[in-house]
Amino acid sequence: VCDETGKEFTDIIYEKAVGEGIAKITINRPERRNAFRPHTIKELIRAFNDARDDSAVGVIILTGKGTKAFCSGGDQALRSSDGYADFESFGRLNVLDLQVQIRRLPKPVIAMVAGYAVGGGHVLHMVCDLTIAADNAVFGQTGAKVGSFDAGYGSSIMSRLVGPKKAREMWFLSRFYNAYEAEKMGLVNVVVPLEKLEMETLNWCREILRNSPTAIRVLKSALNAVDDGHAGLQELGGSATLIFYGTEEANEGKTAYMQRRRPDFSKFPRRP
Ligand code: 2NE
């Protein structure tokens, strides 16, 4: 599968189900339990951009290759004094850009988790809108053990999902939790047998795709708005502008400007 520039991906697999409205992005480093390097993140960002811009896509699945891991976080072999470095001499934490991208993407992103979702991989599933877990899934933060932390979404979203006490437990103790414990904690939406994971995820996608894309777009930004502060309100506000541009009232303003006349908004109601 090629990306939009025609270059082949090396660290991910990017697929679209033609006529279905579903894109699937798979982290493809199973020999490293799907740990990501900066290059992996760059490819993920390109694939998510493509799925966002493709109006035939309504839902995006994020997953990991194989059944052993969704993602084990940053590739520790590439960790440097200033982030993670692969082909470049300086390190970076570009996974933070990916988290923001998923959060602001106006389409639902579903994490389909088999095996380990740990460290930065655990944060990735948390920033997705929904998580469907296989019964072999394992969740946890390893930061305090390996000398790392995510003090951004990795902390604040977790606290929202599981509550402040449990979030402290997850981060301070670095314990792992099985799929059923994670479900009980509110970390995942549903747990299914491993062999049914893909089918169940597709069913959730299809149910979403039957519903109004605009309603879902506005709901996603509304559900994030308070937590995301000014950026969250800006995202929600952008949807309001987008919808307003389709009205006769907005069009009158633009048309009057183009015709160099005074706009006439008199016929538009001032609703209570
Ligand atoms: C994921 C886990 C629990 C799996 O254990 P197991 O026993 O199933 O597999 P094993 O043997 O540990 O791993 C298989 C191979 O994958 C590599 C291992 O080194 C091993 O390589 P070989 O010995 O076969 O050569 N591997 C697995 N995870 C890796 C990783 N993250 N980086 C590099 N190589 C990795 C177990 O593997 C595990 O605990 N992994 C480490 C999890 C972890 O600590 N991740 C980093 C957290 S920090 C982070 O992600 C982060 C952040 O905190 C802030 C910003 C950005 C990122």
UniProtKB/TrEMBL annotation:
Superkingdom classification of source: Eukaryota
Full protein name: 1,4-dihydroxy-2-naphthoyl-CoA synthase
KW Acetylation (keyword) present: no
A GO MF term: 1,4-dihydroxy-2-naphthoyl-CoA synthase activity
Organism: Phoenix dactylifera
Complete-protein stretch covered: 83 to 354 of 354
Gene Ontology BP term (one): menaquinone biosynthetic process
EC assignment: 4.1.3.36
Cellular compartments per GO CC: cytosol
Keywords carried by this UniProt record: Lyase
Enzyme class: lyase
Protein family: Belongs to the enoyl-CoA hydratase/isomerase family.
Catalytically driven reaction(s): 2-succinylbenzoyl-CoA + H(+) = 1,4-dihydroxy-2-naphthoyl-CoA + H2O
Keyword Membrane: no
